[in-house]
Amino acid sequence: MSTAVVQEYLIAGALLLVAASATAAALARDPVRQAVLLAVLGLCLTVLFTFLQAPDVALSQLAVGTAVTPLLILLTVRKVRRSTASRHDGDERGQEGGDES
Amino acid sequence: MSRSARIRLFWATAVVFAAVYTLACTGLPHFGTAVHPYGTRAVATSLRQRTANVVSSVNFDQRALDTLGEESILFASVLGTLVLLRRARDERVGPPQAGRVLPSTRLLGLVMVPITLLTGVYIVAHGQLSPGGGFQGGVILATGLHMAYVAADYRVLKRIRPLAVLDLADALGAGAFVALGFAGLIAGGAYLQNVLPLGTFGQLSSGGLVPLLNAAVGVEVGSGIIVLLASFLDQAVEVRPARNSGSGGGT
């Protein structure tokens, strides 16, 4: 198999990973899980950009999409949860732990 | 608008969009071909401008005005976040709690923070030669600093994060990009034209204006993201709503 064909398979695989993780992120309801899935999507996009020979974009994607954006979401969720928890003191919302991918 | 009308409007726009988008995509150059009209011209120009990283040449030389716009967007959004997240009258600030961290995590942080910061500086400085540049390096610098929060706690991060200086650096970096653009006008060319000596291809000092603009963007992005994360972290870690705010007005 020539390298060009291998590369096309790699790109196709990365595209499938991106589609799968993006769908998972869109379908997740819990914001915390969504933030984590967004980080996974960022990582998949980084792999895709690397295979497409765009290392500059891959670097930005890795730093912003995988680290900064999910962190901002997680911090916002923490702030919102705590202020609602302090407003209704008795209302304890447990974290439901499912096991979907 | 009723629910069914909204759904019908969505499908009508979606169908139009899908048709026009498919039509537009047929006019694109084919995926993965060796010849690309814009790519060939951009590579030839960046060779002439002696900038080894073609992407940097496009971003900071051939299309520097676009980058100025992008950078201003980042600056404006950081400014907007700071205004939105300023401390409201009904909030009080509690001291951050000391965190319990495993000694191994602390050691890893101690080793990794300087290495990450050095990597960030390297990527900013080599933007004209290798993949990366001001934006990527700036984000790495900002995230590297926050490893101190993971490896230790918020008090340590606050100690190594001079926010007043970074506020100023954010504005200075954004201003330096605008100011560097005037070099072209002074030399009798166009705004943001690359008029500096171009140097030797592949050397650290090559590319004329490109490394300087990269440094300005690196300072702006790095300090901008630290300031942005600082206002989020303050809200999440330090700021609490006042105990007896009976009015219930949101923050």
TrEMBL record, chain A:
Q: Which GO terms describe its cellular component?
A: plasma membrane
Which intervals hold domain MrpA C-terminal/MbhD? 16-82
Biased composition annotated in UniProt, kind: Basic and acidic residues: 86-101
Where found in the cell? Cell membrane
Q: What is its main location?
A: membrane
Membrane topology is:
Multi-pass membrane protein
What residue ranges are annotated as transmembrane? 6-28, 35-52, 58-77
Task: Please verify whether the record's keywords include Transmembrane helix.
Answer: yes
- Asked if the Swiss-Prot or TrEMBL record annotates the protein with the keyword Hydrolase, the reply is no
Superkingdom of this protein's organism: Bacteria
Region Disordered: which residues?
Answer: 81-101
Q: What is the protein name stated in its UniProt record? A: MrpA C-terminal/MbhD domain-containing protein
Keywords tagged on the record: Cell membrane, Membrane, Transmembrane, Transmembrane helix
Coiled-coil ranges per UniProt: none
From TrEMBL, chain B:
Does this entry carry the keyword Cell membrane? yes
Q: Which InterPro entries match?
A: CPA3_antiporter_subunitB, MnhB
Q: Which residues form the Na+/H+ antiporter MnhB subunit-related protein domain?
A: 110-226
What Pfam family is a match, any one? MnhB
Q: Which family does it belong to?
A: Belongs to the CPA3 antiporters (TC 2.A.63) subunit B family.
Q: What is this protein called?
A: Sodium:proton antiporter
The entry's cellular-component GO terms read: plasma membrane
Traced from the root, the source organism's taxonomic lineage reads: Bacteria, Bacillati, Actinomycetota, Actinomycetes, Kitasatosporales
Q: How does the record say this protein sits in the membrane?
A: Multi-pass membrane protein
Alphabetically sorted, this entry's keywords are: Cell membrane, Membrane, Transmembrane, Transmembrane helix
Q: Where in the cell is it found?
A: Cell membrane
Positions of transmembrane segments: 68-86, 107-125, 137-156, 168-192, 212-233
